[in-house]
Amino acid sequence: MTKYAYPAVFTKEADGKYSVVFRDLEGCFTCGDNLEHAIEMAEDALALVLYGYEVDGREIPAPSELRNIEITSDEFISYVKCDTLEYRKMYSNKSVRKNVTLPEWLNAEAEALKLNFSQVLQEALMQKLSKS
């Protein structure tokens, strides 16, 4: 699963800025200069932390139900969503080398057409993954 929604507790600070904490996730907190910025930062923090859980193979805790989260009068709760696959596409785009084997005739035909093997493989993999 790469799409998540977790409750975030937003706290308006005295200076007008907002603090945000995801109580279900260890070390998942952020802040913003205003509410819009805090929401944007919360989405990024959530994706980063959950991506870390995925990479580390850690169990991802279930999100709490809103009614079970206690807040003070200067706080409110809102769900924040993220997609860790989209996050990976944006921030983990480093190229890796792959060695492939293909029939000689196919290699000759592709070279005659001056095809970019890396590009063709990327396109084929993306097409295959989108059908999964």
Give a verbal description of the structure.
The chain has helices at 35-56, 84-91, 104-112, 117-130; strands at 3-12, 18-21, 29-32, 75-83. The chain is of the alpha+beta class. The chain has a four-stranded antiparallel β-sheet with strand order 3-2-1-4. The two termini are 13 Å apart.
Concise structural overview:
By secondary structure, this protein is an alpha+beta fold.
Please give a handful of descriptors for the protein shown.
single chain; 132 residues; alpha+beta; 4 helices; elongated
* Mean pLDDT level: 92
Radius of gyration: 22 Å
| Residue runs with pLDDT of under 50 for 5 or more positions | none
Spatial shape:
elongated
Strand order of the largest sheet: 3-2-1-4
What proportion of the residues is helical, as a percent range?
40-55%
Q: What would you call the structural class?
A: alpha+beta
Distance between the termini: 13 Å
| Beta content | 15-25%
Count of DSSP-assigned helices? 4
- What is the N-to-C order of secondary-structure elements (H for helix, E for strand)? EEEHEHHH
* Biggest sheet details: 4 strands, antiparallel
Count of distinct strands: 4
Outline the fold blueprint.
Elements (H helix, E strand, L loop, with lengths): L2 E10 L5 E4 L7 E4 L2 H22 L18 E9 H8 L12 H9 L4 H14 L2
Antiparallel strand pairs: 1-2, 1-4, 2-3
Helix pairs in contact: 1-2
